[in-house]
Amino acid sequence: MSFSVTHPSLRQKWIAGTLVILYALLTILPLLWIIATGFKSPSDAIAYPPKVVFDPTLEGYVNLFTTRTRMTPEALEEAGPPQTWYDQIVRQYDMVISGPSRYGERFLNSVIIGFGSTFLSVFLGTLAAYGFSRFKVPLKDDLMFFILSTRMMPPIAVAIPIFLMFRQLGLSDTHLGMILLYTAVNLSLSVWLLKGFIDEIPVEYEEAALIDGYTRFQAFYKVVLPQAATGIASTAIFCLIFSWNEYAFAVLLTSGTAQTAPPFIPTIIGVGKDWPAVAAGTTLFLVPVMVFTILLRKHLLRGITFGAVRK
Amino acid sequence: MTDETTVRDSATARAPHARGFRGLSDRMVGWTFIAPSIILLLAINIFPLIWTIRLSLTNYRANRTAAEVKSVGLRNYERILTDPDIWNAMQATAHFVFWTLFLQVLIGFTLAYLINKKFRGNDLWTTIIVLPMMLSPAVVGNFWTFLYQPQIGLFNYFVGFLTGADPSSFSMIGDTALAPWAIVIVDTWMWTPFVMLICLAGLRSIPESIYEAAECDRASKWRQFWTITIPMALPFLMLAVLFRGIENFKMFDLVVQLTGGGPGSITELTSINLKREAFEKWRTGYASAYAVILFVTVFGLASIYVKALNKVKER
C-alpha cells in the first residue's frame, strides 16, 4: 500500500507541499506589499524598480491621521521649532498639522456598525435557529428557503427602495439604519449556520432540563446556549467580517456621520497620489481581519465549508 | 442528513414535555423564537423587493420628488431589453463570470488536491492562501490599482521580470483589451481559496475504503482519479460554482474600485451599470425594472442549476 492515494508517498508530499507553498507565497505577496508601502516615503513608494529594501518611516501613518497645510518659510519660522516627532516629519515638506483627518471617525463607525449588527444578527439568528431546529413550525422548509433566497438579491437592486425607505424614516446616514440593514443581510447566513450547530446538540439534554422543572426559555439559555457557544462564536466572526468588509450599501446609503471605512479609504489618496497614506489606512483596516483569520483558523475554515455544504 | 431528521423527529415527537409554559402552546413558543427574524427580513428584504416591482412600472425619479409619478406599464422593461448598453453590460458580466469560474475551479481544485496529500504544515499554508477572501473587496480593489500602475506597479514589474516586456509598456486597467482580464485576475486571486476549501471538504468526504477496493482491483492511479475522485467531488465542485456564480453575477465592490467600469464602459458589469442608472442618472423607475430583470435572471439560472446539481447528487 506504499503508493495508495490515502497514504501519499514522501515524494508526492514533497511535490504537493512545494507547489502549495509557492502558490501561498505568490498569493500573499500583494498583502505584504500593502503593509510595506505603508512604511515607505512617498518617493520610495513610486520608485522604479520597486523598492524591497527601504528606510522605514511613519510618514504614511502621520498623513493618514492628520490634515496638513503648507506654510511660507516666514510663517514656519514664526511657528517655532517642531514640538513632536510627527510635527518633525511634516516639517520636511514645509507643512504644519492643521487637525485630525476623518480616518479615525470612519474606523470607529466600522467598529460600531460591525459589532452592533453582529450582535443583533447572532441574537436573532440563534433564536430563529433554535425555533427551526426544535419546534414544529408550519412551512418550515419554505421559510428556510425564503431566508436563504434573500441572499441572492444583488445589493444594488434592493438599494433603491432601501434608499427611499431610509430617506422617509430618517435612517439615511445613521448608525442605526446601517446596523439594521447589515443585520438583515447577515441573518440568512446566521440562521443557516446556527441551525446546523443546534441540530447537533442532543434534544435529550433539554428534555432532562424540562423534566427538572425548567421552562422552555430557561432550558434554552441554560442548556442549549452554552452547548452552542462555539458555533455562535464562529457565526459571529463571519457576520463581523461581512459587516466590516461591506461596501455597496455603505457607499450608497452613507456619506457623513455613519460612513464606514471601506468607502472612505479610496478617497484618502486625494490629488497628491499619497500611496503610503492609502497603504497605511488599508493596512490598519485589513490586518485585524488577517490576525483573526490566522488565530481562529480551525473554526473559520470549518464554518466556510460547513455553511456551504449544508445548503 | 439522516441525523438531522431523527433529531427533528424526536424533538417533535416528545413535544408534549414542553407544554405548560405560561399557557403558551409549543407552536406559539416556536413562533416567538422565529418571528423577530422573519419580521426583520420582511421589512428589509421583501418589502423593498415589492416596492421595486411597483416602481419599475412607473417613471418615478428619486431626485425629483415633486414631479408627478405616472404609470408607464411595461415600457421600462421593453426599453431595457432593447438597450444596447445593457446588452454590453450583460456581455461584460458573462465574460467575467465565465473566466473567473473557469480559473477558480481549475486552480482551486488543483490546490485542494495537493493539500489533500497532507504534507507537513498544510493547515498553516491553507490559512495563508485563504487570507485574501477574508478581506474587504473594495479596499483591496482600490489597492490593486496601485499594483497595476504601469512602470511603478508591482504586478507590471513582475510580469516584465517574467516575460522581458517593458513594465511601462502596458496598463492593465487603462487598456480596453487588458481591463477585462485585470478584474478576472484580482477576483481569481481573492476567491480561488473559497473554491479550494469546498473542494477540500469534498475530497476529504471520500471514504478511503473505495480507493483500497480500487487498489485491489488493480485500477491505475489515473483511472482512480477519473472514476472515483472526480465523480465523488463533483457535487462539491458544483456547489462552489453555484456560490461563486451568484456572487460574481452580482459583482460590484471589487470592480467599482478597481476600474470603475472603465476604460469607457468595457468592464461595466450589470451591477455597476445599474448603480449608474439608479444613483447617477436617477432614473429610479427604469433602474427598478433593471433590478427586477437581474434578480429574475440570477434566481432563474440558480434554480435550473440547483436542479442539475440535485441530479448529480442522486447518482
TrEMBL record, chain A:
<dbReference type="InterPro" id="IPR000515">
    <property type="entry name" value="MetI-like"/>
</dbReference>
<keyword id="KW-0812">Transmembrane</keyword>
<feature type="transmembrane region" description="Helical">
    <location>
        <begin position="14"/>
        <end position="36"/>
    </location>
</feature>
<protein>
    <submittedName>
        <fullName>Carbohydrate ABC transporter permease</fullName>
    </submittedName>
</protein>
<feature type="transmembrane region" description="Helical">
    <location>
        <begin position="249"/>
        <end position="269"/>
    </location>
</feature>
<dbReference type="InterPro" id="IPR035906">
    <property type="entry name" value="MetI-like_sf"/>
</dbReference>
<dbReference type="GO" id="GO:0055085">
    <property type="term" value="P:transmembrane transport"/>
</dbReference>
<comment type="similarity">
    <text>Belongs to the binding-protein-dependent transport system permease family.</text>
</comment>
<feature type="transmembrane region" description="Helical">
    <location>
        <begin position="178"/>
        <end position="198"/>
    </location>
</feature>
<dbReference type="GO" id="GO:0005886">
    <property type="term" value="C:plasma membrane"/>
</dbReference>
<feature type="domain" description="ABC transmembrane type-1">
    <location>
        <begin position="107"/>
        <end position="296"/>
    </location>
</feature>
<dbReference type="Pfam" id="PF00528">
    <property type="entry name" value="BPD_transp_1"/>
</dbReference>
<dbReference type="InterPro" id="IPR050901">
    <property type="entry name" value="BP-dep_ABC_trans_perm"/>
</dbReference>
<feature type="transmembrane region" description="Helical">
    <location>
        <begin position="143"/>
        <end position="166"/>
    </location>
</feature>
<keyword id="KW-0472">Membrane</keyword>
<keyword id="KW-1133">Transmembrane helix</keyword>
<keyword id="KW-1003">Cell membrane</keyword>
<feature type="transmembrane region" description="Helical">
    <location>
        <begin position="107"/>
        <end position="131"/>
    </location>
</feature>
<feature type="transmembrane region" description="Helical">
    <location>
        <begin position="275"/>
        <end position="296"/>
    </location>
</feature>
<feature type="transmembrane region" description="Helical">
    <location>
        <begin position="218"/>
        <end position="242"/>
    </location>
</feature>
<keyword id="KW-0813">Transport</keyword>
UniProtKB/TrEMBL annotation, chain B:
<dbReference type="InterPro" id="IPR035906">
    <property type="entry name" value="MetI-like_sf"/>
</dbReference>
<keyword id="KW-0472">Membrane</keyword>
<keyword id="KW-0812">Transmembrane</keyword>
<feature type="transmembrane region" description="Helical">
    <location>
        <begin position="224"/>
        <end position="246"/>
    </location>
</feature>
<comment type="similarity">
    <text>Belongs to the binding-protein-dependent transport system permease family.</text>
</comment>
<dbReference type="InterPro" id="IPR000515">
    <property type="entry name" value="MetI-like"/>
</dbReference>
<keyword id="KW-1133">Transmembrane helix</keyword>
<feature type="transmembrane region" description="Helical">
    <location>
        <begin position="287"/>
        <end position="306"/>
    </location>
</feature>
<feature type="transmembrane region" description="Helical">
    <location>
        <begin position="127"/>
        <end position="147"/>
    </location>
</feature>
<dbReference type="InterPro" id="IPR052730">
    <property type="entry name" value="Sugar_ABC_transporter"/>
</dbReference>
<dbReference type="Pfam" id="PF00528">
    <property type="entry name" value="BPD_transp_1"/>
</dbReference>
<feature type="transmembrane region" description="Helical">
    <location>
        <begin position="96"/>
        <end position="115"/>
    </location>
</feature>
<dbReference type="GO" id="GO:0055085">
    <property type="term" value="P:transmembrane transport"/>
</dbReference>
<keyword id="KW-0813">Transport</keyword>
<feature type="domain" description="ABC transmembrane type-1">
    <location>
        <begin position="90"/>
        <end position="305"/>
    </location>
</feature>
<protein>
    <submittedName>
        <fullName>Sugar ABC transporter permease</fullName>
    </submittedName>
</protein>
<dbReference type="GO" id="GO:0005886">
    <property type="term" value="C:plasma membrane"/>
</dbReference>
<dbReference type="InterPro" id="IPR035277">
    <property type="entry name" value="MalF_N"/>
</dbReference>
<feature type="transmembrane region" description="Helical">
    <location>
        <begin position="29"/>
        <end position="51"/>
    </location>
</feature>
<feature type="transmembrane region" description="Helical">
    <location>
        <begin position="178"/>
        <end position="203"/>
    </location>
</feature>
